[in-house]
Give the backbone structure.
Amino acid sequence: MNAAREVEVVVVGAGQAGLSAAYHLRRSGAGPGRDFAVLDHSPGPGGAWQFRWPSLTFGKVHGMHALPGMELTDADPARPSAEVVREYFDRYERAFDLRVRRPVDVRTVREGAGGRLLVETSEGIWATRALINATGTWDRPFWPRYPGQETFRGRQLHTARYAGPEEFAGRRVVVVGGGASGTQHLLELAPYAAATTWVTRRPPVFREGPFDEEAGRAAVALVEERVRRGLPPRSVVSVTGLPLNDAIRRGLADGVLDRLPMFDRITPDGVEWRDGRKVAADVILWATGFRAALDHLAPLGLREPGGGIRLEGTRAVADPRVHLLGYGPSASTIGANRAGRAAVRDIRRLLDGEPLAA
C-alpha cells in the first residue's frame, strides 16, 4: 500500500452518527481532507436507510430525528423512507462540504507509530490521532440458531433482506422477533400471506401514551448502564416497549399480532414446540435485530470480559483515542446527534493535550 495519509480524526461511517460527528468537526474549525476524513463503505448517501424495504414509507418510520444544522422538512410521508433519507443525507453532505469518501471498506484498525492509529482500508492507510467509529449495525444481522434449522425446505431470510410483502403472497410465514420490525412485517404481510404466525422469546410490551423526554432519558440510562459495565448493549427500543398506535391496535384486534412463545425446533415443513404444537411454514422471517459492526476494531483489544466495550460517554475506556457512536445509548437518531457533539468536544481536548473528563 502507499504511505499512510495523516489526519487528526478519521470518522468511519456516514450514517446519522457519522454525519453528526463530521458536522461538529467542521463547527470546531477542522477541515475535511486536511484535518479529518469521513470513510463510508456504502455506495451512496443515506447510511443504512438506503437499504430499507420500499414499503417502509417515511410516515411509518419511528423516531427519525433531523441531523444537526439542517431540518428535514416537507418530506412526503407516502414516499419510501430510503428515498427520503438518501436525498436528505445527500443535501446535508453537500451543504456542509463533508466530502465523504465512498465506497471505502475499513478492514482493520491497529496501533501505529507515534501514538497514531492506522486505519487500513480498501483505498490505503490513514494514520490518525483519534477515531470516531460510527459503523452502526446493519452489516451484522443477527441469526439465532435452532435445532433443525438446516433441514427447513422453505425460505429463510432476515429483515436485512426483506423487500416488501408482495413476494410472500400465498405463503405461510413465521415471523420471529418482538421488535418494531417484526410487528411492521406482520401488519404488511397479513393481507398477502396465506397465514402468518408471530413468535417471540419474551412477551411483547406495548407502551401506552406519549413517549416524553423523561421516559426517553430513563430508557437511555438503562442502556447506558450496561455499556458502563462492559456488557453488550441492548437497544433503546428493547427497554421502551412498542408504541401502541392505531395500526398496532388493529393488528391486536384482528389477531395478526397474537403472539406465540418461541418454538423449540425447526422441521423440514415448519416449526414445533416441545408440547407437540406444530405450525407449517413456507417462510421463516427472522426479525431478530442486529449487532454492532465492530470486528475491524478487534486488534485494539477494546472488549471487556463481559463481551461489550466499556464507554465513558462515547469514549472507549480502554483507549481514549477511540469513540463509538451509534453504540448502546447513542443508537437512536437523536442520541447519535448528541453523541457526535460530545465526541468531538472530547477529541478536541485530547488533541489539545487537555485532561479528559471523568
Notes: The longest strand covers residues 124-133. Residues 157 and 285 are 5 Å apart (CA to CA).
